[in-house]
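pinging the channel bc i need a second pair of eyes. not urgent but kinda urgent?? the chain im working w is below, pasted from the shared doc
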Amino acid sequence: MPMDLEAYREFAPKGTVDFLLKLGERVRGRSFLHVNSTRYGGGVAEILHRLVPMMSALGIDARWEVIAGTPDFFAVTKSFHNALQGEEQIITEEMYETYLQVNRENAEKIPLEADLVLIHDPQPAALIEARKWGKWVWRCHIDISQPQRRVWSFLRRFIVRYDAAVFSLPPFAQRLPIPQFLIYPSIDPLSDKNRQLPRSEVTRILDRLEIPRDKPI
């Protein structure tokens, strides 16, 4: 379904939608590729389900690719995820090799050509090795302020090859020799999760779940 940007005028600060439309004119027809590790579940997928149609509505040739991986690969990246957020993990050389091998296999299957490629989080970060042209940006959605040093050192050697990195908050970032940008946490006021519910619908839900009304909700 095409995204209707006009619907956001009610919620966005005055002039924001017009500003986006103006910016869209400058990049109309450019190609933009998002790559992450899952189509459903998790915050990144939720963002991309809304963001990619928004970009298309602005005239951008926006695509979204998802890397394929084995259960071992996703177990490894889960350990990476925890280690980067400061939880001590045991990461073996075989685990690092599993990570690299799956990224190499995806690099052969996914068409990575675009004017701008945005790689989300650690799982597909090593795809940078397959870059042929275009600008590449790494988007980190997690807090890596106090990572397990060995895991960060491993990942950092890929991140420094990007043209820029994006973090959610200043304290979540690391020192890098590439430009860094901030995209603060936000919500989509038009998503099902954030829409206002009529009182009648709230009542039906509470009744179905047998939730009493004599206490604050």
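so Residues 93-109 form the longest helix (17 residues). and The helical segments are 16-27, 43-57, 71-84, 93-109, 149-159, 199-208. — does that match what u expected or am i reading it wrong
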